[in-house]
């Protein structure tokens, strides 16, 4: 087994294999994910939008590309959380310690951070919200049971989550396009009697169906990483791409009616609220391919702890919470919310990324003390 060292770094609870050296590639992946999340959010939250006569493709191609790339950030975080949970469980089990209590505590803590973010950002979220942190915490809470399953069962469950999503969406009559007020339970059409459960299951930003498939795939990939079998991650990416391709073929051949379970399974609605299994499978393939590429790079060309993407990744939970509150809430009173032209918005975006990179690089010298990651380690040692 590869020589790797245990450590505690959210959003995944750990990024280690069995012994020795830290897997900095997983930190790099978190750093890339948090960068993509920040640039996507800020591009939307700061820019005032198209002027008369403008188009996204001809006049703002850079912002369009940035926004599209940002769509992979949250899926990457969820997959990496699964990898970290898997590695942590393996490490502690090999040391003769039961990992279940730590995993459960971390699940509660990460979900707590999710509800803290809901409280800090009332313009976007509510107590009913089911965002990426809620999904990750939910996965960690279930990991004490999931870690006892064979890898084939984990992947079978992931496929079952995808396969049942279209039927669940159709059975609940989930709107074909979800907007923010509905996803936080504030829309008059929201089913108020059990809106919180419905949002978590199928109607939130990142509901269990279909997004929990990313966490399950991450649990399997964590085993591959710990065993040094990175090729299996690439193979899993190919399998996910095949599932997505089958969905595309079915849609082209069957032309299902809008709103049916088959239509919901095979549609490619952008933005992905609600997400279809076909789109999710294609996103999963891209995320897994990125994980395979970075981990293979680290194996051949070792990374340094001072790498800016590593330090960004090690502060990713803090940066996730901070940038949402700062640019979603704090900018409104000063008139910056969706008020800037494209060039100014891009300048602010890049300036904040540069600040976050420098701050995280300096912060590593004191072990990221008092950040969300530090607090998580205190709450769930």
UniProtKB/TrEMBL annotation:
It comes from the Bacteria. Keywords: Acyltransferase, Membrane, Transferase, Transmembrane, Transmembrane helix. InterPro entries: HGSNAT_cat (IPR012429). Residues 22-229 form the Heparan-alpha-glucosaminide N-acetyltransferase catalytic domain. The chain crosses the membrane at residues 28-48, 60-83, 103-121, 127-146, 153-172, 208-226, 233-254, 274-297, 309-326, 346-363. The keyword Transmembrane applies. The keyword Transmembrane helix applies. It holds the Pfam family HGSNAT_cat. GO terms for molecular function: acyltransferase activity. Coiled coil: none annotated. This is Acyltransferase family protein. It comes from Enhygromyxa salina. The lineage of its organism: Bacteria, Pseudomonadati, Myxococcota, Polyangia, Nannocystales.
């Amino acid at each position: 087994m590869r020589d790797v060292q245990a450590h505690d770094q959210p959003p995944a609870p750990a990024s280690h294999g069995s012994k020795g050296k830290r897997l900095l590639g997983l930190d790099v992946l978190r750093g890339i994910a948090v960068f993509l999340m920040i640039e996507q959010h800020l591009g939307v939250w700061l820019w005032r939008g198209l002027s008369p006569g403008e188009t996204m493709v001809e006049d703002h191609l850079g912002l369009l590309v940035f926004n599209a790339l940002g769509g992979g950030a949250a899926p990457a975080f969820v997959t990496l959380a699964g990898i970290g949970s898997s590695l942590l469980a393996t490490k502690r089990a090999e040391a003769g310690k039961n990992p279940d209590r730590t995993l459960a505590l971390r699940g509660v803590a990460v979900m707590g951070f999710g509800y803290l973010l809901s409280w800090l950002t009332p313009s976007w979220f509510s107590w009913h919200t089911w965002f990426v942190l809620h999904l990750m915490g939910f996965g960690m809470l279930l990991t004490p049971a999931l870690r006892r399953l064979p890898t084939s069962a984990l992947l079978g469950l992931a496929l079952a989550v995808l396969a049942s999503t279209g039927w669940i969406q159709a059975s609940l009559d989930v709107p074909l396009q979800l907007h923010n007020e509905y996803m936080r339970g504030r829309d008059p059409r929201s089913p108020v009697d059990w809106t919180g459960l419905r949002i978590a299951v199928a109607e939130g930003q990142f509901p269990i169906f279909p997004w929990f498939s990313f966490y399950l795939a991450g649990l399997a990939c964590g085993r591959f990483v710990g065993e040094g079998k990175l090729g299996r991650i690439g193979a899993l990416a190919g399998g996910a791409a095949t599932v997505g391709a089958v969905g595309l073929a079915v849609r082209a051949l069957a032309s299902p009616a809008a709103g049916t379970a088959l239509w919901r399974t095979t549609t490619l609605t952008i933005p992905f609220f609600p997400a279809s299994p076909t789109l999710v499978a294609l996103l999963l393939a891209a995320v897994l391919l990125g994980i395979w590429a970075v981990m293979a790079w680290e194996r051949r060309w070792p990374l340094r702890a001072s790498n800016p993407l590593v330090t960004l990744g090690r502060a990713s939970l803090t940066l996730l919470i901070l940038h949402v509150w700062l640019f979603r809430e704090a900018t409104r009173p000063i008139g910056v919310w969706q008020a800037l032209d494209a060039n100014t918005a891009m300048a602010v975006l890049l300036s904040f990324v540069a600040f976050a990179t420098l701050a995280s690089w300096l912060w590593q010298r004191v072990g990221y003390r008092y950040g969300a990651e530090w607090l998580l380690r205190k709450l769930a040692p």
